[in-house]
Amino acid sequence: MSELQTPQLTKKDFESDQAVRWCPGCGDYAILAQAQKNMPTFGRKREEFVFVSGIGCSSRFPYYMNTYGFHSIHGRAPAIATGVKIANPDLSVWVITGDGDGLSIGGNHFMHSLRRNMDFNILMFNNRIYG
User: Fold this and answer.
1) Which residues contact 33 (CB under 8 A, 6 or more apart)?
2) Which entry of 61, 95, 113, 124 is 20 to 30 Å from 32 by CA?
């Protein structure tokens, strides 16, 4: 009996068909490129990844990943990611947030997700603009 082989994914498999709309020279391009490059190394199917974002420049991230994703409201990405993880603990859930979205209005949700020890990743874009 032959064993079913899962095809090896590449960076291209995680690239969406959406035009990336960040300012020329923005560091967000590098973050996106590295995320797309590294997702295949986790050994998961694209359907097992969920990206949840709040607002700001980083919030467009789920559109640029060929995975499941939510573009949520200001500061609430950790709360929504908590619900996603509780509903399906087998998913690899990623919160995408900026310094303003995640540490200002979203600071409380950020802290409580840490307190609850939720099994999801937080990728914070610190563009040092939040004042």
Assistant:
1) 11
2) 113
- Is the sign of the CA dihedral 17, 21, 27, 31 positive or negative? negative
The per-residue pLDDT for range 42-83, each reduced to its tens digit, is 999 999 999 999 999 899 999 999 999 999 999 999 999 999
DSSP conformation class of 101: I
CB count in 10 Å sphere of residue 66: 17
Q: How many residues does the chain have?
A: 131
Exposure pattern of 69-86 as b/e (b: 16+ CB <10 Å)? Answer: bbbbeebbbbbbbbebbe
Kindly calculate the radius of gyration of the chain based on its CA atoms and give it in whole angstroms.
15
Question: How, if at all, do strands 121-125 and 92-98 pair?
Answer: parallel
pLDDT in tens, 84-105: 999 999 999 999 999 989 988 8
- Residue ranges of domains in the chain, CATH in brackets: 48-131 (3.40.50.970)
